[in-house]
Amino acid sequence: FDRAAALFDGLVFIGICIKTVDFYSPIIELFSFSCAYGVIHGLSAAGEAELLNLHAHKTGALIIAAVELGCAAAGVRPDTDTRKALVRYAAELGLVFQIVDDILDVTSTTEELGKPVGSDADNDKTTFITLYGLQGAHKEAERHNAAALAALDALGPGADFLRLMAAELLERKK
Question: What is the pTM of this model?
Fold first, then answer.
């Protein structure tokens, strides 16, 4: 087994274990398979399409799973406009998180960030910085943040906390 196979097997196993307790199992199963797909395909991301696909299945899948679980717990049906808007928000927020993470990897210090910086370049990873440059990555983060906020337009003031979270995520330093 290589690293990718071990990660995939572990994530699938987690999904199967959680499914046996029948606690929102379809969402958890989707999440575990999406993350496994993202991990394996992330090892070879080379261009924009591959990078967007990777983060949709990793960071995006984590945030979407949280939104889906919250919606399920609140009784928000999957076919409602509210749930669709929240899932769209979550997908865009996942991209914002990852783009800002890529930016911080080149602009922050280990002390500020709390983890080693520069590892993406050291490992020759394709990132939003390598694709767009620092300024371009900032613009992409702002564009995806605007799309996340736009997804919340129909939800009114009840979604203000989510708007605040998106703004803070865009400006985070850690």
Answer: 0.78
